[in-house]
Amino acid sequence: MGIASDFILIVIAGLAGGFLARLLRLPLLVGYVAAGIAIGPFTAGPSVAQLHDIERLAEIGVALLLFSLGLEMSFRDLAPVRRIALIGGPIQILLTAAVAALAAVKIAAMNPRDAVWFGAMVSLSSTVVVMKTLAAAGVTSTLASRVMIGLLVVQDLAVIPLLILLPQLGQSAGIAAALVRSLALAALALSAVVLLGTRLLPPLLRLVLNWGSRELFLVSVVAIAVGVGYATERAGLSLALGAFVAGLVLSESEFSHQALSDVVPIRDIFGLLFFVTAGMLLDPHYALIHPGKIAAAVLLIIVGKSAIFGVLARAFGYVNMAPWIVGLGLSQVGEFSFVLARIGVTSGRLSQDAYNLALTCTVLTMAFSPVVAGLALPAGRAWRRFRKPVVVPAAVNLPEAPLSGHIVIGGYGRSGKAVIRVLHEAGLPLLAAEWNHALFRDLSTAGVPAVWGDISSLEVLHAAGITRARLFLITVPEQSTVQLAVERARRLNPHLLIVARAARADQVPRLAHLGVNAVVQPEFEGGVEMVRQALTKFDVEESEAHRLVSNARSDFYKTEA
């Protein structure tokens, strides 16, 4: 049966690996990689015959994953993180590559040329793994997630000059011209994708929808993803990058939500191919011969990349848990390292030993990535407890007499602004606390009493008069900050009424257990309001609509609690 039997074997092995991962309470990704090792060419038992063809199919999985990511985002979503992406991204790549190359020479005794290749591969993180991890946690829209995505896009773009420069190591003639030519071609190709995507694709999809064929719509969406990706690959870019840009372009149209809904099942099946294929490349024999060397390399990569990304995020003004989330979330080695490694070994520029080490580290860091990323919040909280930083809160617009019986609002983001505007107009005594200094200045301009600092800090809570407050509204989305603020505020004022925001439904019972009087889950509340509007439009009596909505809200929060 050829490739058909290989495909069947991969799906069945992936299913078994997924079951095993779930039984062990591990991410599915780990089970898929383990399945790949079991059916790979280096282990006994059934194995894939057409590995190269399967790898090409796996690349379609990467393209569809990034296409769906582009559909979920927009150019506007990436705008707030463009500074760290465009400036910090290149800094991170160069710094990580230099540190990894130096460590490879000093610790692993690699020759300088192998070390440079190894450093370049280590500098890249995995877009596929990160997006799978973020999607599984339901946090693709948070600020830290957008920072990671912005950095990953820059890394994917950096593959182009790396593919040109690395094979030319030791040669000086023609490198600059080849690099300029390739970058110009890449810029032209991306511009063409955006231009054609905004002018051609929406009318094409509109025509398909007018025919009333959902099947043809799905085929059109998949064709756009892989077709644009293939065109950019022919232009010297990657299949995945082209698909991502195509998704970004379509995200600005009215078709984005239906396209995303239709493409997700296909994306997940082809994504399974990618992770199983990644496991097939791991040679257990090499790992058994060099366990100490591999363990040390994996540990250094995870710790080193976490530190570099975390410090970089902090240097660009991201605070609280963001540096921990970004650092540990991007600590793995990426799928484009496979591409670099293959080119290096086939061209004779990279030794087989360095190739095996790089490949093994890539697969292992990918497999461990979901577990490592899950340590971000616990590690961040532990660091806070260890440092116990002394915050000197700055205050604006505070009345001469200390506030008492007032409302403290933690956070001046989108939710906090709406809350403060209404309460301020109602004339109720309030005080806001905000860590972001730019937003704090906005509070000052608006004439709202405010203190600057982290709302979970004891010093800031004291400055906000939490011991004399009547109500504490916590609007920040970062759940570790919310939980810490609740715990400390409750200790300082046992009679305080607390209303807190839950980012996800599964966080509702946790906050209720901490003593929050009322928990608000924004997505659920938005859905409830939509239902109320629908009932009103259908002329359902106001009392009946109120009863139905109240029952839905009561059942949701009672069930979750």
Number of domains: 2
Helical percentage: 55-70%
pLDDT < 50 stretches: none
Average predicted local confidence, pLDDT: 82
- Could you please say which CATH topology of the largest domain applies here? Na+/H+ antiporter like fold
- Radius of gyration, in angstroms, nearest whole number: 26 Å
Oligomer state of the chains in this structure: single chain
Q: Describe the strand arrangement of the main beta sheet, using strand numbers.
A: 1-4-3-2-5-6-7
What class do helices, strands and sheet pairing give? mainly alpha
Query: What's the total count of β strands?
Result: 7
Number of alpha- plus pi-helical segments: 26
Task: Please summarize the sheet with the most strands.
Answer: 7 strands, mixed
Q: In CATH's first tier, which class of the largest domain applies?
A: Mainly Alpha
How far apart, in Å, are the first and last alpha carbons? Answer: 53 Å
Shape field? globular
Strand content: under 5%
CATH architecture of the largest domain: Up-down Bundle
